[in-house]
Amino acid sequence: MDKKNTLSFALSYDELIVLLQYFKRPEMPGLNTAPLQELSEQERKMMITVAERALLARGFLVIGGNSKLKMIDPVIALVGPCIESEKTLIVKFDSMYTPNQSIFFHTARKMRVMHSTPISGIHQFIAVEDDKAFLQSILVLSQIGDYKKTPCENGKIRLDAFEAIRAKSQEAGENRTAQSLIDIGLSQTTANLLVKCLASPIAYITFDYNNQSLNIVEGFSIFIGNNTVWLFEPSDQDGNFSVSTSSSDEIITRIKKLITQTNP
Fold first, then answer.
1. Per-residue model confidence (pLDDT) at position 264
2. Cα–Cα distance between 113 and 106 in angstroms, integer?
3. Is 206 within the bounds of a domain?
């Protein structure tokens, strides 16, 4: 495989289910297998048969020397790392201007693969040359812009409580929303500033990182408004999160640190 050339392809939900059988895996990150349970055995067999024929027609499955079907190397190279990744960064986008989606950035050995679902039922796999390309893709999707840190007192809240307030902020209005934020632990100054972002939100993005080799699980969330970017990160084992204003440079540094962590 020439790594200087972009390698990518898209698979239907049914086709990906078939490939999982060839990998001898029941599931993978980013693939909801629950709909399969709603099918009868006959319906599942029909789905598998039709999808397998489609993969044959597309050249993703070929007949091997023993007359059995096998996956071609590019399929193994791109789907394999998503099933048995060494490092995974999951970025969940909740945006006002683009469809909400989750994108999975997988690393396995020397392969780096982006797995996304650009439209319902279609899974896209893209080989990425290096960590720098990973970072650039995330920055483009995140709309981080060029925010400077706004002076503000830090706070501590439960993230689920904030998300509940965020979901109702548009109908509740600024005054009631600010009071709700104060009630869950923020100072009045911090609550008033955060309310302005809730009134004009751009994106809410969560970064979840898992390094299986080093047994590291970490992450953070950012909330982007018109003039401020907020950072939410775990502060203890009880579900509390620290809340602070941040800058584009700080967020980029944090993302880069997640992506470039290496195994000893």
1. 39
2. 5
3. yes
